[in-house]
Structures are given as structure tokens and as C-alpha cells.
């Protein structure tokens, strides 16, 4: 069943358009992550779903009902903010109970729900405390508890982990994942700029850029088959290496001419008409391996070595490219600066994008 | 023109003299305890000594001024309050005994309490309302400037303005006071507003409220803007109405600031003097403590002892509120 349906959703501030017609269907119980660089409109989109921003155009349905003009509290949503947004003058208990008190729930019901939420989030010992007496992670748990108490159909998270330190971020991320498993019928929409959060939490990721959807898909789909250059570069760290190339052979397999008089053949069929086109050849740093044979893709000189223990990053200067190529090799690697190396990759791990940045498949 | 030039000249000389004091005194200090071009031990000893003396050297003018204009008058007033008319004959608690039984003093204390109850409450309340409302409209800043403007008018100046507002002309003649003009336009009879016992107190208070609302508004407006927007959005999602958000989310978050504004105006009200002096001079049951003190001290009364006694009472009323105010303000600072 569709929980949230966005039809041609638009947002503009005066003459400035920030969201350019988003179409998206989110199923009940699904965990969807909006991801994209700052200013891509992901938070605006979330705030429109919440009802904190007016919708300039299009329709928004929650639970099969058009809610464009329904106030936030009646949409069956709950939101967790980046800054926690706890009421500083209220205890943890009152923070969680506030919404229910406004809705005039009975005392017993309020008490039951608050304790249930506190139990799930291990906040029972802190119910009498004020937010200022809590740590950052605890505050975020209270904010999540407040959302749970609203018993929403749709959970909205607006970069909920951004204010936490690295260790807490991981712990809270896992807690959110557990929470979503514990509530299989609750839909979750999560905004982040952190692709690790997106990859680990999402059932589906929506990659946004400049107020438009670049690609929607499962995390691995986005990683393995990026639809365009933007997604290819955005998902994965370090970003995918992009090398300008010319398409010289088409048909069932595609052959590209790379700088340095190298050729590479990919398992991707292309039309005859594409022959001679300028394209972008892409390969992920972690898909590159070092080779000594003549069968390599590209050759270059190591300019920087970053040894991180678990992996080693090699920055390789290659012909006719300003940016160095990055290779991510497992473990510690015995290379020296200024050493010449040859890199190759499996034919299935290669990507090619046309002049507009669309992936050729 | 000449006066203007003279004022400018005084200002320049004053600032220059202050600067000169700091530079010259510092220079002399460095001369007496030189730290340059001396051997290590002597240099470090001299440096330590100068560092100990320098703060006091720079504070000296301020401390001197405080002693002469604040500390000495307090002690002198206390001393005077136990002495008679001319300040020589010791009378013990005589002045205080007189005061408790004096009708005019009782009247003043009562009026002061009325001022105390009404003015801070009204000014803070209106300030809060205006601050909350003007934040939402495009002409809010214009409205704020207009409401803040009375702050720039001296109390006596404001009193002159309001004297015209309350002005009374005999029935039948043209009313130049706006209040009476309105009353007669609606067919009523003109009143001599500031002579109506009890109500005239309120009419005088209106002037101070008019002045102080701007102050309360500016401080509270800043506090309201300091409230994190997300807490309000969270309350919107929780289903709170505009009024509920204002009273349950916004007001509690700026409670500390409201207390500071309230007490600051309270202290000001305890010292209220100029308005009463200019409007009624304490006639028609509008007397307040500060004006009463002024009467006994410097006018008509000519009794230093009684004047000083009333001054002591005002001081004792102000001090606890002031301590509370300073503590609250300090707490607010920490919170930021």
C-alpha cells in the first residue's frame, strides 16, 4: 500500500524555484532516505511533507488522502529535528506528553505511551530530567521518543545524527535501524547528506540534486548501476574516478579510447550511431587493482599515498587529467611515491556515461 | 552656536584628559619599576609588581567617582537620618517615628506600591504583546521604532507632552487636550483629569508605561527571536495552537528575560520622581516617596533629617530588587 505519494511537487520562494516537480511513491513500512548535497531541496521536500512549508504546486497524499492543506498535526506524521528541538523548560516526560496533552488524551493513556516509548529507548531513568541535564545522544532519543508517542503513520527525520559525535552517530544510527525493524508498518522518511547513513538505513534511496530527483533505487542498485554521473560521483567514497574518453567501437560490446593510447572494452551494448562520441569513463577506486601485465587500463605515477591501515589510498597522476585518479587497495601496500604503476579493473565494474552524463547500459 | 562649540570643546578635552591619564600614569609606573634593560630577576620582579598595581591604577578614577558620588552620599544620608532639621542635633529614631505616623508619607508609600504593581506589569505586558505581534508583520519594524521612540524623551519632556493630553479648559471653550477633546466630541463634560483623586495616579502611570513599553519591547523582542525555531515547529507538529505555542512554549523559554525586564522597570518605578513633580507636584493625593523626599530636603520642608530618612527607605526598597535583578541577569548571560 502506498503510504506517501508525491505528484509533481513543486516549491518556489517568490520567483526562486527550489523544487522542480518531484514524483515519488513511498510504500507503507518502507524506509526511504533523501540524500543529496546541501541546497538540493531535500530538507525542503521533507518539510513540505511535514506541513511546515507550503506546497507551491502538485499534490501530496498521505495514507491515500490529499493533505496539501491539512495542518501538520492532522497528517499522521511525527518529525525528529537535527537540533532535537526539545522544549527546554519541560522534563523528558512532559516533552513526550506535550502532544498528547494538546490532543486531550487521558492521563492513563499518556502515562502508558510515555512509559512504553521510554522503555524502548532506555529513557525510563531520565523521565524527570530537563533536557539540559542530558547528553546529546540522550536528547536525540527523547526527540525520537516524542515522535513515537505521537504514534504516527509516517516518521520524518531531518538529519537527526548531524549534531552527534562520530561514535554516538553510529550507535544512534543502529538504534534507528532497530526502531524501524520494530515498527514494520511505520513508514520512515529520512533526510541526510551522509551517504553512509543513507546506504545503511535505506530500503530505497532518493538522490536529489538542484531540486530534482537524480535516481531512486535500493542502495546497492545506486552503487552498482548509477543512472548518471551525479549519482556515480555522489554515492561511494572516495568518489568514482571519471576519465574523459572517446567511443570507438560499438555493438554488443563497447570499446573506448582512453588517454595514453589505451583502449578498454566494456560489457555494455551501444548503438552504432554513438561511435565517435565523447564520453566519460568511470571506475570506482575500490574496483581498481594493480597489475604488472600488459593488460592494464591506465598507467600513472603515484603522487600521494594515504595509508589508513585497513585500506591504502593511492593518488595516481594520469595523462591528460587534472585530477589524480584514486585507487583504494586493501591493507597496507608497499608502494613508494613517484613510482609508476598500472591499474586495471574487472570488465563488469566499469561505467560509461554519455556527454549529458547519462549512463550507457 | 557658542554653547555648541563649548560643549564640543568640553567633550574633546574630557576624552583627551581620560586618555592622557591612562597613558601618563602607565608611563610613570613603567619608569618607577622598569622591566626592560634590567637583569632577569629584577625585571621579572618589577613586571610582577607593575602587573599588580596597573589594574588599580586604571580603576582609580572610577573608584574615586563611585566613592564621592555614591558611597559618601549613602553614608551621609544614613547619618543625616538620625539627626534633626539642620543635620547637627542627634535625634535617634525620631525621624523614623515621625515618618510612620505622617499622613503624607503613608499616602506616598501607598501610591508607590500602586505604581509598583501597575507600571512594571503593564509595561512588560504591552512590551511582550508588541514584540510578539510586530515580529510577524512587514511593517513591524516601523511600529517598533514608533513605540520605542518615547524612550528617547526625558521624563520631564514626556510629562509636558502628557500635560497637553490631559489639559483642561472650562466647559464651553475649545479643548486643547486630546482627551477632553474626545470626551466633549462624544458629548461628555470635560474633566480636570490630573486632579481626580486615585484615578490621577493611574493617569500619571500611563506616562511611564508609555515610555517603558518600548524598553520592554526591545529586550523581549530579542529574547523571542532567540527562541529556537525548531521548538516552535515541533509544537506545531504536536498540534499546539498559536496561543498554546505562545503561552506554553515561548513564554516559558524567555521567562528569565521577562523577570529581568520586570525588575528593571520596578527599580525605575521605585525612584519615580520627575513625572510626579512635573505633572502634579504631589498634589491631589499623587505624592510619591522620591518627590516627598525632595520636598523635605530641598524645598519648603527644609528638613535634612526627614528628607534623608525617606531616602533611606527608598534605598532599602530598591536594594533587594536590585540584587535579584542582577542575579537574574547574570543567570541569563550564562544561559547564552
Topology, element by element:
The complex is a heterodimer of chains A (361) and B (336).
Chain A: E1 2-13, E2 16-27, E3 31-35, H1 42-50, E4 57-62, E5 65-66, E6 77-80, H2 92-102, H3 107-120, H4 136-149, E7 154-158, H5 166-182, E8 187-192, H6 195-201, E9 204-209, E10 212-217, H7 219-224, H8 229-234, E11 241-249, E12 254-258, E13 262-266, E14 278-283, E15 289-291, E16 298-307, E17 311-317, E18 325-330, E19 340-344, E20 350-353
Parallel strand pairs in A: 3-8, 3-9, 6-7, 7-8
Antiparallel strand pairs in A: 1-2, 1-4, 4-5, 9-10, 11-12, 11-14, 12-13, 14-20, 15-19, 16-17, 16-19, 17-18
Chain B: H1 2-32, H2 40-81, H3 94-101, H4 103-134, H5 140-148, H6 155-165, H7 178-185, H8 199-226, H9 229-237, H10 242-253, H11 255-270, H12 274-279, H13 289-298, H14 304-335
Helix pairs in contact in B: 1-2, 2-14, 3-14, 4-5, 4-8, 4-11, 5-8, 6-8, 8-11, 9-10, 11-14, 13-14
Could you characterize the architecture of this molecule?
The complex is a heterodimer of chains A (361) and B (336). Chain A is an alpha+beta fold and 361 residues long. Chain A folds into 2 domains: 233 residues, Rossmann fold (3-Layer(aba) Sandwich); 113 residues, OB fold (Dihydrolipoamide Acetyltransferase, E2P), CATH 2.40.50.140. Helix content of chain A is 23%, strand content 34%. In chain A, the strands form 4 sheets. In chain A, strands 6-7-8-3-9-10 form a 6-stranded mixed β-sheet, sandwiched between helices. In chain A, helix 2 packs across helix 3 and helix 2 runs parallel beside helix 4. The two termini of chain A are 31 Å apart. The relative contact order of chain A is 0.11. The model of chain A has no long low-confidence stretch (mean pLDDT 89). Chain B is an all-alpha fold. In chain B, 76% of the residues lie in helices and 0% in strands. Chain B has 2 domains: 80 residues; 241 residues, MetI-like fold. The two termini of chain B are 47 Å apart. Chains A and B meet through strand 6 and helix 2 of A and helix 9 and helix 10 of B.
Amino acid at each position: 500500500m502506498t503510504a506517501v505519494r508525491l505528484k509533481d511537487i513543486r516549491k518556489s520562494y517568490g520567483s526562486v524555484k527550489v523544487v522542480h516537480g518531484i514524483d515519488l511513491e513511498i510504500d507503507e513500512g518502507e524506509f526511504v532516505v533523501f540524500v543529496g548535497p546541501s541546497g538540493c531541496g531535500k530538507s525542503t521536500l521533507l518539510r513540505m511533507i511535514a506541513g511546515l512549508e507550503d506546497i507551491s504546486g502538485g499534490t501530496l497524499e498521505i495514507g491515500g488522502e490529499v493533505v496539501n492543506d491539512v495542518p501538520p498535526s492532522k497528517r499522521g506524521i511525527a518529525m525528529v529535528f537535527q537540533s532535537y528541538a526539545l522544549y527546554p523548560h519541560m522534563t523528558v516526560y512532559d516533552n513526550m506528553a506535550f502532544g498528547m496533552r494538546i490532543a486531550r488524551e487521558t492521563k492513563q493513556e499518556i502515562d502508558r505511551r510515555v512509559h512504553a516509548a521510554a522503555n524502548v529507548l532506555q529513557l525510563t531513568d531520565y523521565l524527570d530530567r530537563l533536557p539540559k541535564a542530558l547528553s546529546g545522544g540522550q536528547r536525540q532519543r527523547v526527540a525520537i521518543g516524542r515522535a513515537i508517542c505521537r504514534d504516527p503513520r509516517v516518521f520524518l527525520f531531518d538529519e537527526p545524527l548531524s549534531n552527534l559525535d562520530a561514535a554516538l552517530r553510529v550507535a544512534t544510527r543502529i538504534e534507528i535501524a532497530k526502531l524501524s525493524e520494530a515498527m514494520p508498518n511505520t513508514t520512515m522518511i529520512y533526510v541526510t547528506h551522509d551517504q553512509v547513513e543513507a546506504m545503511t538505513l535505506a530500503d530505497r534511496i532518493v538522490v536529489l540534486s538542484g531540486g530534482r530527483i537524480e535516481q531512486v533505487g535500493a542502495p546497492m542498485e545506486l552503487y552498482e548501476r548509477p543512472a548518471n554521473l551525479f549519482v556515480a560521483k555522489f554515492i561511494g567514497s572516495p568518489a568514482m574516478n571519471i576519465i574523459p574518453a572517446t567511443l570507438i567501437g560499438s555493438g554488443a560490446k563497447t570499446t573506448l579510447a582512453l588517454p595514453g593510447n589505451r583502449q578498454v572494452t566494456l560489457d555494455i551494448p551501444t548503438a552504432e550511431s554513438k561511435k565517435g562520441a565523447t564520453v566519460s569513463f568511470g571506475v570506482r577506486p575500490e574496483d581498481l587493482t594493480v597489475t604488472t601485465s600488459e593488460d592494464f587500463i591506465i598507467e600513472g605515477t603515484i603522487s600521494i599515498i594515504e595509508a589508513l591501515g585497513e585500506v591504502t589510498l593511492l593518488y595516481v597522476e594520469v595523462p591528460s587529467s587534472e585530477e589524480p585518479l584514486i585507487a583504494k587497495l586493501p591493507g597496507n601496500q608497499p608502494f613508494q611515491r613517484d613510482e609508476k604503476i598500472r591499474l586495471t579493473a574487472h570488465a563488469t565494474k566499469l561505467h560509461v556515461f554519455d556527454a549529458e552524463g547519462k549512463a550507457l547500459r | 552656536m557658542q554653547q555648541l562649540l563649548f560643549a564640543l570643546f568640553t567633550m574633546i578635552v574630557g576624552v583627551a584628559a581620560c586618555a592622557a591619564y591612562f597613558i601618563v600614569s602607565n608611563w610613570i609606573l613603567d619608569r618607577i619599576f622598569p622591566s626592560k634593560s634590567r637583569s632577569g630577576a629584577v625585571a621579572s620582579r618589577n613586571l610582577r609588581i607593575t602587573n599588580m598595581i596597573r589594574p588599580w591604577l586604571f580603576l582609580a578614577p572610577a573608584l574615586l567617582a563611585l566613592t564621592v558620588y555614591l558611597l559618601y552620599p549613602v553614608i551621609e544620608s544614613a547619618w543625616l537620618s538620625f539627626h534633626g532639621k539642620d543635620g547637627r542635633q542627634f535625634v535617634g529614631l525620631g525621624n523614623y517615628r515621625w515618618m510612620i505616623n505622617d499622613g503624607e508619607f503613608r499616602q506616598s508609600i501607598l501610591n508607590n506600591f500602586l505604581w509598583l504593581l501597575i507600571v512594571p506589569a503593564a509595561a512588560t505586558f504591552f512590551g511582550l504583546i508588541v514584540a510578539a505581534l510586530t515580529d510577524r508583520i512587514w511593517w513591524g519594524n516601523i511600529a517598533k521604532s514608533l513605540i520605542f521612540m518615547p524612550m528617547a524623551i526625558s521624563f520631564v519632556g514626556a510629562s509636558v507632552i502628557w500635560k497637553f493630553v490631559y489639559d483642561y479648559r472650562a466647559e464651553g471653550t475649545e479643548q486643547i487636550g486630546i482627551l477632553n477633546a474626545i470626551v466633549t466630541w462624544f458629548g461628555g463634560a470635560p474633566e480636570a483629569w490630573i486632579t481626580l483623586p486615585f484615578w490621577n495616579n493611574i493617569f500619571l502611570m500611563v506616562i511611564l508605561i508609555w515610555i517603558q513599553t518600548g524598553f520592554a519591547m526591545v529586550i523581549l523582542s530579542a529574547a523571542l527571536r532567540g527562541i529556537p525555531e525548531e521548538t516552535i515547529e515541533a509544537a506545531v507538529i504536536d498540534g499546539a495552537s498559536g496561543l498554546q505555542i505562545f503561552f506554553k512554549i515561548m513564554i516559558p523559554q524567555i521567562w528569565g528575560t521577562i523577570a529581568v525586564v520586570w525588575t528593571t522597570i520596578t527599580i525605575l518605578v521605585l525612584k519615580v520622581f520627575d513625572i510626579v513633580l512635573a505633572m502634579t507636584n504631589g498634589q491631589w493625593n499623587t505624592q510619591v516617596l522620591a518627590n516627598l523626599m525632595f520636598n523635605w530636603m530641598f524645598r519648603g520642608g527644609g528638613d535634612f533629617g526627614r528628607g534623608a530618612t525617606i531616602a533611606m527607605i527608598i534605598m532599602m526598597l530598591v536594594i533587594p530588587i536590585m540584587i535579584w535583578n542582577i542575579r537574574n541577569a547574570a543567570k541569563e548571560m550564562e544561559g547564552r
